[in-house]
Design goal:
Order of helices and strands: HHHEEEHEEEEEEEEH
Structural class: alpha+beta
Largest sheet: 8 strands, antiparallel
Helix content: 25-40%
Number of strands: 11
Shape: elongated
Length: 304
Amino acid sequence: MISLILVVVIATPIISFAVKQVGKKNLAKSNVNLNASSISTEDTNRLSNPASSQIPSSVGQNPSPTGENPSPEGQNSSTEGQNSVSNTSNLTTSPVSPKECVHNYVNNVVAPTCKSKGYTRHTCSKCGKSYIDSYVAPRHDYGKYLCEYCGLPDPSIALSSLPAWLEKHGTLEGNGIYSGIHYTENGGKYSIYYNTVSFKDISFDYENNGEIFRILLVSTKLCSIAYYKNGINGSMSNINNSTVNSSMKLNLDHFEITGNTNVTKEECEAQMASKIDGFINIIQNKLLLPNTGLKLRDFGFTSY
């Protein structure tokens, strides 16, 4: 009997301890199952609401009454990292307005020449920005008689500018009294002369085997025409330049025949008139225009 009592006394604490350990194990299993259920529910919520998977639902919520943080440990630091990245992104992508230059333009006017336009260049003295406007068409810059750039004579004063050009470019003849330029065709010599002594008396000449045809300029309004061939000598003065052409009616104020030539005054006038067009065209197109840029119109010959 005494042995039975001893066994009961000794076994009772052991059994009590075993029961307590079994209870703790069951409680732990219960907590594990509860946590697993919680995770499963949370995952389900995340799948049904993708936006909630990016930021934990606990962020911004008030803590529980017990003072415990309902979110897992480290969750707040992760959220803070996300906010930091977001803020950094906003800083780097925000447009920054550069400080604009208050321009101070300095103007440089470039004059036109015979071959290039003139213009005005505006350049900022601070940043160097520039632009161009106020274009001017190419043009000659005439000094007293000739262009400062190319040296061509001024057509507005052709009667004075042509002698100035011939003085520089012509060939001296007649003991230095005349300076001229020449062109030869079919044995005939075409020339433009001026008198270097009087600085006037511009003449357009043709010579061929003793035949001479000449137009002597008096002004841009008046001229005289002279002809000589085989003893025939005829001339007419004070002719209006604008009337000179092959169809004009000549009325010689001087007519002279020497030798055995039977030519009337009327025949001489008709012969002189027939030469005018061909003579004038060669003077203009072969001598005057290609060398000086001048035209016979600049001297009042409006028919050409």
